[in-house]
Input
Amino acid sequence: MGPFVVFLIPILGIAVGLAAVIGNQWIKPWLALKQRQMELEATMVAEKAAQYAAQTERLEQRVRVLERIITDRGVDLAQEIDSLRDAPLN
Output
């Protein structure tokens, strides 16, 4: 090994150690920021899912009401529609 290599090894060792220490100072806050962003995103997605679930429930209730109207009053409804056709448009 030449004299250049003898000096290069300790310099590289110190440089790697310094890079690890300095990198750690930047990586921790960056990771904390990314974690917070993911938490906020998860909260927003959960809220959106709750809104969709509530909307789906409302639509299902409306369909149940319509089904009940159709099945309970099927004959009466047909007669009411026919009477409305025959009624004047005043």
The helical segments are 3-72, 74-86. The CA atoms of residues 39 and 45 lie 10 Å apart. The chain is about 90% helix and 0% strand. The chain has one domain: 10-85.
